[in-house]
């Protein structure tokens, strides 16, 4: 069994981007500038956004963190998005999800200028992805494709089972995996909360992408020998033996599944760091496109 070391690969990618940034600086060009909007103080979201901003600093990007209170109205957030859309110094920005209940997520995502939508969540960009047109690919599925590629794991003609149909991970993952080269070229099955005979389906998979948000759901008896396992889940599970009172668990029961898998991503240190690296890659692309 080989661990798919997202931490290492994401570091390689960040070093590649940092080199690129240095050459931009040497030529007197403007460096990429990413802004992140965080509404409220959800612990996990604060951690993720903090990691994104820190990564920007490390590779020489400019970054701006915009923190808004939990009670922010939809109008106030839309106004902030309008400012970011029209601020020519900002190359790309993200609005961290989930948003508080009083804010309509879809309305917010649709307000983002598609040319600055480095998360790739705007309907225009989702449509462009589905039609194989150049766009910003959503960072998590993009990171998974990159991780598989850098470990030279073949996807062409393989049976890929995507568990989950979220707009952020499952849906785009299934699209990328089914697309022609240079994407996945795989035979894709999507399973979700209404699926029947789940185990039968997952057992036939060469590659499983688990993105359902239920901790340790995929167990060893549900996968075939030598399957490739990608774990997108990250849930805080109460654990009194830990200093902060919780541990991080994936959607995969690592102990039992790792005994059968040929390759598996750890949690943390697998998919998570890849998401950040690909967001940075998208921001660099945005800077280059804006010229
Ligand atoms: N929440 C969970 N994942 C993501 C992501 O990739 N981008 C944003 N904006 N919010 C998220």
UniProtKB/TrEMBL annotation:
Annotated catalysed reactions: (6R)-5,10-methylene-5,6,7,8-tetrahydrofolate + NADP(+) = (6R)-5,10-methenyltetrahydrofolate + NADPH; (6R)-5,10-methenyltetrahydrofolate + H2O = (6R)-10-formyltetrahydrofolate + H(+)
Domain spans labelled Tetrahydrofolate dehydrogenase/cyclohydrolase NAD(P)-binding: 138-289
Signal peptide start-end: none
Pathways per UniProt: One-carbon metabolism; tetrahydrofolate interconversion
The organism's place on the tree of life at top rank: Bacteria
Recorded GO CC terms: cytosol
Enzyme Commission (EC) number: 1.5.1.5, 3.5.4.9
Keyword NADP: yes
GO molecular function: methenyltetrahydrofolate cyclohydrolase activity; methylenetetrahydrofolate dehydrogenase (NADP+) activity
Keywords: Amino-acid biosynthesis, Histidine biosynthesis, Hydrolase, Methionine biosynthesis, Multifunctional enzyme, NADP, One-carbon metabolism, Oxidoreductase, Purine biosynthesis
Positions of NADP(+) binding: 164-166, 234
Any single biological process term in GO: purine nucleotide biosynthetic process
Keyword NADP: yes
CDD domains in UniProt: NAD_bind_m-THF_DH_Cyclohyd
Family per record: Belongs to the tetrahydrofolate dehydrogenase/cyclohydrolase family.
Oligomer and partners: Homodimer.
Protein name, UniProt field: Bifunctional protein FolD
